[in-house]
Specification:
By secondary structure, the protein is α/β, with parallel strands linked by helices. The protein has 8 helices and 10 strands. The chain has a single domain, classed as Rossmann fold (3-Layer(aba) Sandwich). The strands form 2 sheets. The chain has a 6-stranded mixed β-sheet, sandwiched between helices. A 4-stranded antiparallel β-sheet has the order 2-1-4-5. α3 runs parallel beside α5. The N terminus is likely disordered.
């Protein structure tokens, strides 16, 4: 079992999502405890993004999701979690700096202008502060989205394929930030198909394919095994049984 003494910060129970007659997520359940990094790992089309979007409240679904014991759709829960989508969407007529100020005010976040400036510096956005959302590349939009999510000092953070579109330096910075968030006690859930990007980050891995969780691994229980080997031993076994 993972960190039995830890408190469950994120709980997903019997989550099921259908798009018309297509079953995208089938009865998925998992938990991530305080200060741990969970990874939803699977190929494209496995249902990972549907799970993340459901947790974030962007999709209707069957089942339940709780953030620190609170139903995820309540305002109390929304105040304590951040979300970085796979496809960032910014306000076209707000500048980078105005996006961060908007989030600060919307969440009534107790962050100083100096802190906002530090986040922009870390993700190389200082010279883009006056650029409009409509003028940014996908990579720059992703950086703004990450800064907005971190600005509120969330206790739970959801990342959906966060490293797609980022340059190598930004990926390195994001990994460092994720580790810092963990040290500060935040709970992190990352959806990705890029095993190499999360190799050194994970505490709990939930291997997904075709809408279901095939296996769950906790680092302390498989410390001598490579994540690639764990992943392919499960997914390739599934292919052989078809």
């Amino acid at each position: 079992m993972a960190d039995e003494g830890g408190k469950t910060m994120l709980e997903v129970k019997k989550l099921t999502k259908r798009y018309n007659k297509t079953l995208a997520v089938n009865d998925v359940s998992f938990t991530v405890n305080t200060g741990r990094i969970g990874i939803l790992l699977g190929p494209n089309g496995a249902g990972k993004s549907s799970v993340i979007k459901s947790i974030a409240g962007l999709l209707k679904y069957e089942g339940g999701v709780w953030i620190d014991g609170l139903p995820a759709r309540t305002m109390e829960a929304k105040r304590i979690f951040g979300y970085v989508p796979e496809l960032p969407s910014l306000f076209p007529n707000l500048t980078v700096e105005e996006h961060l100020e908007y989030i600060r005010r919307a969440y009534n976040a107790s962050v100083s202008r100096e802190e906002i400036a530090r986040w922009m510096e870390r993700f190389e956005l200082e010279d883009k502060r006056d650029k409009l959302g409509s003028e940014l590349s996908k990579g720059m939009m992703q950086k703004v989205s990450i800064c907005c999510a971190l600005l509120i000092r969330p206790r739970v953070i959801l990342f959906d394929e966060p490293m797609v579109g980022l340059d190598p330096r930004a990926i390195k910075e994001l990994k460092e930030v994720i580790c810092e968030q963990k040290k500060c006690g935040a709970t992190v859930l990352i959806s990705t198909h890029m095993l190499e990007m999360v190799q050194e980050l994970w505490d709990d891995v939930f291997v997904m394919d075709k809408g279901t969780i095939l296996a769950v691994y906790h680092r302390e229980e498989v410390s001598d095994q490579n994540l690639d080997d764990l992943f392919f031993s499960v997914t390739e076994k599934g292919e052989q049984h078809e």
